[in-house]
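Internal QA ticket QA-208
Title: Verify multi-chain structure generation after dependency bump
Assignee: T.L.

Test input:
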Amino acid sequence: MANILGEKLKIVSFGESHGKCVGVLIDGFPAGFKIDLEAMQKEMKRRQPGQSSLVTSRKEEDKVEIFSGIFNGLTTGSPICLLIFNKDVDSSKYELIKNLPRPGHADLTAYFKYKGFNDYRGGGRFSGRITAGFVAAGALAKQLLKEKLKIEIYAYTVQIGKIKAKEVSLAEIKKNPEKNLVKCADLKAAQKMEKLILKVKKQNDSLGGIIECLILNPPVGLGEPVFNSLESDLAKAIFSIPACKGIEFGVGFKVAEMKGSLNNDQFYLSQGKIMTRTNNAGGILGGISNGMPIVFKVAFKPTASIGQPQKTVNLKTKKPEILKIEGRHDPCLVPRAVPVVEAMTALVIADLSLQAGSN
Amino acid sequence: MANILGEKLKIVSFGESHGKCVGVLIDGFPAGFKIDLEAMQKEMKRRQPGQSSLVTSRKEEDKVEIFSGIFNGLTTGSPICLLIFNKDVDSSKYELIKNLPRPGHADLTAYFKYKGFNDYRGGGRFSGRITAGFVAAGALAKQLLKEKLKIEIYAYTVQIGKIKAKEVSLAEIKKNPEKNLVKCADLKAAQKMEKLILKVKKQNDSLGGIIECLILNPPVGLGEPVFNSLESDLAKAIFSIPACKGIEFGVGFKVAEMKGSLNNDQFYLSQGKIMTRTNNAGGILGGISNGMPIVFKVAFKPTASIGQPQKTVNLKTKKPEILKIEGRHDPCLVPRAVPVVEAMTALVIADLSLQAGSN
Amino acid sequence: MANILGEKLKIVSFGESHGKCVGVLIDGFPAGFKIDLEAMQKEMKRRQPGQSSLVTSRKEEDKVEIFSGIFNGLTTGSPICLLIFNKDVDSSKYELIKNLPRPGHADLTAYFKYKGFNDYRGGGRFSGRITAGFVAAGALAKQLLKEKLKIEIYAYTVQIGKIKAKEVSLAEIKKNPEKNLVKCADLKAAQKMEKLILKVKKQNDSLGGIIECLILNPPVGLGEPVFNSLESDLAKAIFSIPACKGIEFGVGFKVAEMKGSLNNDQFYLSQGKIMTRTNNAGGILGGISNGMPIVFKVAFKPTASIGQPQKTVNLKTKKPEILKIEGRHDPCLVPRAVPVVEAMTALVIADLSLQAGSN
Amino acid sequence: MANILGEKLKIVSFGESHGKCVGVLIDGFPAGFKIDLEAMQKEMKRRQPGQSSLVTSRKEEDKVEIFSGIFNGLTTGSPICLLIFNKDVDSSKYELIKNLPRPGHADLTAYFKYKGFNDYRGGGRFSGRITAGFVAAGALAKQLLKEKLKIEIYAYTVQIGKIKAKEVSLAEIKKNPEKNLVKCADLKAAQKMEKLILKVKKQNDSLGGIIECLILNPPVGLGEPVFNSLESDLAKAIFSIPACKGIEFGVGFKVAEMKGSLNNDQFYLSQGKIMTRTNNAGGILGGISNGMPIVFKVAFKPTASIGQPQKTVNLKTKKPEILKIEGRHDPCLVPRAVPVVEAMTALVIADLSLQAGSN
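Actual output:
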């Protein structure tokens, strides 16, 4: 199931960074839904490379082309095949380091798993570029969720390096991230983050960070007890984003330091609906959504590709070597990961909603 | 798929806390393996309730009974059905609070998801008691991994409340946790943790904590790119343990503050094998094991059932009420979760090993 | 997936013929359904051995015991574990022929697949006895279909040896099969079939036959295009019944001799509903139910266990031997397969109905 | 799972008859395999339309284009995306009959299932044209089976209308079918079949038929007991071919008339291998391959699209109408189904072989 995700709404990922295209197939999308292609392309733009000095200089238009499943602008219920052609491919740098696995990268593990037959150019199947397909599929899921169930999903950067965003209002979360290059809802922190990234870029180094994701207006009852807890399904999908190393729901790891009397979200009645004033649980109890906003945080590691000299081992000669990575890389992949987190989240929530019979 | 986990090695969980039994079905276990029943029962004892003042007073022997799949002491390749009968059931307390969802518990979400038909006694299907089945199945997986692939798995408490264990040697990790009631490898911290739990118990309150898990001698190549990354599969399984709210691999959330030059684990050659001196990646690159020990941490929330008065809403009368939970509960479920983390980890690693054609 | 069937309504089969029990786990059954245990036991009786001279003399009460998933007589939405204990086990005959694979049986293939570790007693996992679990699970599915969707399922013998039943009315299909030992709707043919079976039994030989299955009042739209056509899903489930060697829908293999002008079921309007006067398609067009009754036929081979001398090869000595099978066997398994065909059909139709959002 | 088939080797089908393309995605194909593109294109030609007066006049080159998963001519272990563009599309005839479901076709069931949003042009997703993707994927599976496991698969027409082929030698099965337009191994019967098709074509009518499939040199042990019997998996895949209405293994439905003493294939020893002289079981015992050739027959109905006037009901006006289908159709789809049966068989056998750890 390496390249297939979901139960009722499934996506199949394919394509390579320096091959002909990256793509995604969506199976199980309901028939008769009017696709907003412009909105989809707008999502693509949020993840697109080559747009500022903060990100890789690779120039890709990332135009999504539809190959099946849409008829007269409406979904047909058949698999939707979306392709994004690779246009600005420069594989020259990769021939040189073909036998030099980059520290922090999948080069070494891919080499062993596929006995050296994997497409190593640009990381191939392990490149962040495959998330272009995630975003395209996620755009459809987001449209479906918003239109049919009034569910909205917002992801935004809350930390880059040691710079942490402060908590802001929901209104700010909705409008601020698109106003700055790091997609942070705290505009002051955003400025500092941008400066830090530029500084670290000059050092030929890279930065990690944390993204928070908020699901507004989720229905009660998403997720299953035991093996398909909502946390399980979201975590599985989120960990398929390259460079993700941690996920926590609600107060997350801080829960270790809290007593039950403080951590438990007590119930009250609001307009006939049972709600909680705190949301330490992040909207999930017993693996099932309780109707409060679902909140989680995701940790991303610094980009593994850096220009500084690093120790590696030549796979052919079996000798140690020093590697200096060239090529075009993001000094911090967090800003471009924001729409990817939203996309994967939307796909999981849409799948669970369809499983629950919603739509 | 709510109650089924795994691809080649599958487990099916069933049973309820106050029903006849909890159980587990294991499908895909290789034929001809000699089961060590004593070792399995020993694993059960590590999770067993009623053993000290730190845990619930419910007395369960948790004897595993085999109903299928074993012939002459050897596995047959057919599904192995394991049952653990519930013996010390006291449902009296639950009739009283049947309509009063406990804050922090699955009562409310279960009620909505199953329209009130779920077995609410003792949390029913959402009870930590179902993890007895996980431990029984995990015991078989651990035996298989150890005997066939020399893979060993160790989980241990690293934090309870604000008390954190210090880093200790591998030798201590292997022997210390079974020497104390909180299953911590740092014996000094263990003492403090025990005291803290007893103190908080007296306050009718509860504590959360963090468990670390270490997989020794993993083969290179476990896990898949994209949707079945090793992190994805482990996270999905671990989040099926009740009360789990976060997971992080290697340095985890700390990765946000690290630069690439520091975070990347550089390669060197050791006896013909490519290794890394640091292990910030926690043994996983590109979603695939790189042969270094796999390490992750899991956050558990404080037990939701506490004796202190809490606000809830009566599901029948739709009126607010104050709830004081009686019944027998762990003041801190972390120590008993340690063997459960090991079990779920063993099941995932065994499944992936079988998928990879090992054994 | 060897022992798991279904998507939304799943069953897991386990247990062996001469082990402690045979059993079935049902996952995904909707909550709040009142189980009619008496009706379930009645279904079991239809498949039960030891009831007449036409079937094996093994005496099994086949009482279904519920181990989970039912609370106060209602389903909870949790997995339902049903066990049928083996009581009249006589494994003495099997020790003698342990190394002598019976022609027509799974002994040889099981031996190779499980390297000799399979439980060979009574055929173990390959015994027709495992279908007791199918019937128990199917009984629940039948109740659900009938009560919620008014769908009824009837299977009946249409051929045994060379004796073929003539076509009879729907009324006769509904009442006649339970009136005779071979479960045939044509009572005259039934008498001949009974006599034939007794005659062949005396010859230490066995007979095959054909069962027809009729699904009344199916909704339009069950089944999927391409890989989960209704024929695909039904065939997959039916071929899991031991001894089944063929399945055909509607006119089946006769379709080869029909021209399109004759085979096409033309449409007409009846009370606002589009129907067909002929039903050559057996209620399925393009892999999807069209609202007409679904009809298919299933071929069963003669019981492989016969008392006549047969050639085999000793697995230990690798020498040819002559085998005379003792033990208790059905001279014709078709009558007892009738409720099994109904059960598997009910499980598939219930699964597809739940997938379609019915119930 | 409507559009996904397989466990370890999966294929995903997509595309529509009159859309941009039909396609297939192959997930789980082993890395490092050299693809013979010419052989693949040759398989495509066997199914290609427009080649003789016996088949539809639609002209499609059916050139397979590779979009991912191949690097330097070798498989990479990543998903292989294959596209076949639709070139000779004429949808004009379909606008006229948009609301007139064709008898024997999926038009009506598709309309209800997808609420009228399905792409009805040329049958859309239900067209035989989607099998172009099956053949492309199957070509890879056939190459893998032949090269790695020496398994060969042959399908051939054994009946069209009332004309039945006589049994011929294996040598003839291997070479004759490609020598005639109906792909029959009995060359005399082939001539009669060709004539009959031309005659029926003139009558604006169509014919059904039967295809036999033979798997040579299968390993012992493919298939699982219970729900994934080899018959189950093959039947599921074969019933996904449009117009298939029946499948039978070995002697098939004739088994009903055979006594056990005749039907059982007795064992003998041949060069240390246990074999059977008869092969009534079609190479499968207890759902598992026994090493003898696997044989099964598949019934195909006559093409539903015929030029004769037929009764239908207008979906808009809800009035009866008479329909005369125009457009380009095969008078008998059996010859073109032959490579499709081979392809689906190869995909199943390759999947099971990979599951068994072969390759």
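Spot checks passed. Residues 99 and 316 of chain A are 6 Å apart (CA to CA).
Status: verified.
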